[in-house]
Amino acid sequence: MQKDVLENLQAMRQKSPLVHCITNLVVMQVNANILLAVGASPIMAHAQEELEDLVKIINALVLNIGTLDKHMIASMNVAGDFANKYKKPVVLDPVGAGASRLRTETALSILRTIKPCIIRGNGSEIMALAGEIGETKGVDSTKDSLEVVDEAKQLAKTFQTVVSVSGEVDMITDGTRVAYVHGGNPLMTLVTGIGCSATAVTAACMAVAKNPFIGAVSAMALFASAGEKAGKKCQGPGSFLSYFIDELYNADYEDAAKRVTLG
Amino acid sequence: MQKDVLENLQAMRQKSPLVHCITNLVVMQVNANILLAVGASPIMAHAQEELEDLVKIINALVLNIGTLDKHMIASMNVAGDFANKYKKPVVLDPVGAGASRLRTETALSILRTIKPCIIRGNGSEIMALAGEIGETKGVDSTKDSLEVVDEAKQLAKTFQTVVSVSGEVDMITDGTRVAYVHGGNPLMTLVTGIGCSATAVTAACMAVAKNPFIGAVSAMALFASAGEKAGKKCQGPGSFLSYFIDELYNADYEDAAKRVTLG
Amino acid sequence: MQKDVLENLQAMRQKSPLVHCITNLVVMQVNANILLAVGASPIMAHAQEELEDLVKIINALVLNIGTLDKHMIASMNVAGDFANKYKKPVVLDPVGAGASRLRTETALSILRTIKPCIIRGNGSEIMALAGEIGETKGVDSTKDSLEVVDEAKQLAKTFQTVVSVSGEVDMITDGTRVAYVHGGNPLMTLVTGIGCSATAVTAACMAVAKNPFIGAVSAMALFASAGEKAGKKCQGPGSFLSYFIDELYNADYEDAAKRVTLG
Question: Chain A residues with CB-CB distance to C under 8 A?
Fold first, then answer.
């Protein structure tokens, strides 16, 4: 597993996948900066008139419902259908699922119709999608990743997907296997868009991965390594972001791979 | 007053209010990062289909007209009505009022129908809303806060609200009392979204405040303290933002409270 | 030429032009921060109801198609028409031209109807607009500026405009003369919005320039100087952005002017 992660991260930087993000308005800039820092190439676009042209040339698609509205939902559905037509992997970030019916239902609808190969969220979002009543507080998580292992496995099985849950220890499952990723820093929850950027980097890793499970684990391993190092240098969340992007750029893939254990 | 400010800031971090921002596209990221740094929790959402669900769980609502259009205005009105229904405080940032009729009229319409408990803006915006012909230049201010004390008092009385005006010395009035906040740094006007973030933090303070006057003063005191400290460390507006967020995170509430005087 | 650049940059900071950006959702914050750092004043607005009010008071208009959709295209056309009516210069950034028909056609339509005085893009975008089949990869460039000199000249002549192309060496042409700008740092391509911000600063310089050629060269000279200095201080793209904004704020205009040569 650690060898697979190492190779996945090296391949991601070498091939520089083009990741198309239909994502929320809050995190577009930091998502693009983090994709560039890890060696991938970002494109943000939502006009239905250009989605087929773009999906043809991309290597992975991110659907992030963080500031969804009916126009964005329509764009996500069109882009998702083209991604399936052109066999490009789709990663879903169900931001705020559980906080409103619109978010929960949109995420479930994407799971049913677009069939993303990875869902990447926090504990509360995964709980909400798994049918539990999540005690979601806004878009932050009140459930730790390790509290939702059973729900994540169930969700993965139901939708034949991989579920990647960030937390103090990240937890990734394909419904059978469970991987854990150790590291990071609590400040990662105090900078907006770090979670959404983990989703974008998951898509970048997925674009060159043997399978979605390895792709999902690789991205979280890279974030755990860079986050832990940045956390030791910073004086707060402002300087953390700057150091974190630098650490992603100067990434130590062997350190990242060592952070993975199988449960 | 200083004791009230100290207690308000401590309560804000302890209770971590969920602040819903319907805000402009330029500042969403920095608003979210600054809310997280001060200990609050941000949510950005504008889809009318989810506004009731979300307003039920939030602790305060920010309406910021910085990149308004008819869709955003409609969302602000719906969210504002729900905020009144569910008794959640509303803070208005009339960005660019005076620069276009659309902005001035939208801000006045929100004041009349939603009745926010605090208006937070710069001198030019307050002049424009008070019926004077503001020499507004874009969304920056050409009027200092201390030049608009009478207009701010009048505006506060007319709409039974608190008016909080940023400037070299910040000035806050409920129509009768006037508070001044000393500190900050001129670079705060050279980083986009610092003013809008002061509005967001005003909403966070308001969510746990004895009254809007104290809430409004507390937020400006926190910014004045952190801004002054960051200004001493930075080499320009790029590094200022990073230091400023760190200083907000490591805030010294006693230093903040000492910056307040009553006029 | 170097003296013209020096005077243009000094005039830009002294007059603080108000630059109206109808730009993409990814870069709004960094564009605003960089305009403020160089001494200009930004405004972002797209509501058709306020475009005439605003275009009357601005000094230059940027049209950037990075996250275009039919609403944004309509706003760009309305704002462009008002800019022509009120004789305000327009600068076009054809982000991603060549990556989709929508982008290529929208850029060409703006060139034909709004007639911007400067097009600022990367090599692939200029190739696509010049009718070559650009090997565009997303919104990043796969063509260096020096590979597209002939196409840029042709484009400039066809549309009677100036074409400014970023690259390892920046290249600017009015169809006859060609200027080169030396400096910068490769990390400038790994921070989202640096190119779009070069466009915004081009508009700020244009607002006070003798002619579009000098305006376009001046902005690239300023970026080359600040980028080279920031690149020597940073540890990666995260800290680069912070240093770059500081260097723009503390700009050395004589160093900037010396980076220009005529071909």
Answer: 18, 25, 28-29, 32-33, 36-37, 41-47, 49-50, 53-54, 57-58, 241-250
